[in-house]
Design a protein that fits this description.
This protein is mainly alpha-helical. It has helices at about 5-60, 70-90, and strands at about 95, 95-100, 105-110, 115-120. About 65% of the residues lie in helices and about 10% in strands. A hairpin with a 6-residue loop joins strand 3 and strand 4.
């Protein structure tokens, strides 16, 4: 229970307690890293899907057989998808900072009890 009972056992117990706290801190940091990457990937998937839809619309607009009434609808739809694309980029943030914006900062996370880090760009 304390150092008066058995000093060596107490010393080992204190070391184990410190290691457990260190492991919990590393686990928390790794979870932050994992969550950051998941948010960024989700935003990128949404942006990828929108980009494919925009590409399909551009091909339809290039087709001379597309009626003018349909062209106006396709153009409006494409403009909306471009707004959604920008929105997806802007809302992909974690802990208050954007992950996909121009100039987004790299993030480092503690990887082990030795203090090594993992950097996500």
């Amino acid at each position: 229970a304390d150092s008066l009972d058995d000093a060596s056992v107490f010393s080992v117990a204190q070391t184990v307690r410190a290691e457990v706290k260190t492991a919990a801190s590393v686990q928390s940091s790794l979870a932050q890293g994992q969550n950051t990457v998941q948010v960024a990937l989700s935003g990128l998937r949404q942006m990828y899907d929108l980009t494919n839809e925009i590409r399909a619309n551009v091909i339809l607009l290039a087709d001379g057989a597309t009626a003018e009434s349909a062209r106006a609808t396709i153009k409006a739809n494409t403009q909306e998808m471009l707004r959604q694309l920008e929105s997806a980029r802007n809302i992909s943030s974690y802990n208050g900072s954007s992950l996909l914006a121009n100039g987004a900062q790299s993030r480092s996370f503690i990887a082990d009890s030795a203090g090594n880090t993992i950097t996500v760009s």
